[in-house]
Amino acid sequence: MKILYILQIIVAVLLVLSILLTNQGTTLGGAFGGGETQIWRKRRGAERFLFILTIIFGIAFVVLAVLNIVL
């Protein structure tokens, strides 16, 4: 059981880091949802990798949270 808590903490830290790295190229207003102009474009290269990694870490965090509650 204790291993689930440790895994959840590790995934939480990785999730925060991936979110911060994803928002590194945006302005401060854009990082919090605001922005003067929104341009829709395809993600490529490292940006796409970080985007997918953030989704994976988010799903893993939710799964571990549910497992911690159930067990």
What is the gist of this entry?
Helices cover 70% and strands 0% of the residues. By secondary structure, the chain is mostly helical. The termini are close together.
Topology:
Layout: H1 2-22, H2 28-31, H3 46-70
Helix pairs in contact: 1-3
Describe the overall structure:
The chain has 71 residues and is an all-alpha fold. It has a domain at 1-7 and 45-71. 70% of the residues lie in helices and 0% in strands. The chain has helices at residues 2-22, 28-31, 46-70. The longest helix has 25 residues, at 46-70. The protein is elongated, with a radius of gyration of 15 Å. The protein starts with a helix and ends with a helix.
Class per helix and strand makeup: mainly alpha
Morphology: elongated
Helix content estimate: over 70%
Ranges where pLDDT stays below 50 over 5 or more residues in a row are none
Oligomeric state: single chain
Biggest β-sheet: count, sense, barrel?
A: none
Distance between the termini: 8 Å
> What is the CA-based Rg, rounded?
15 Å
Strand content: under 5%
List the secondary-structure elements in sequence, H or E: HHH
How many individual β-strands? 0
Tally of helical runs? 3
Global mean pLDDT: 83
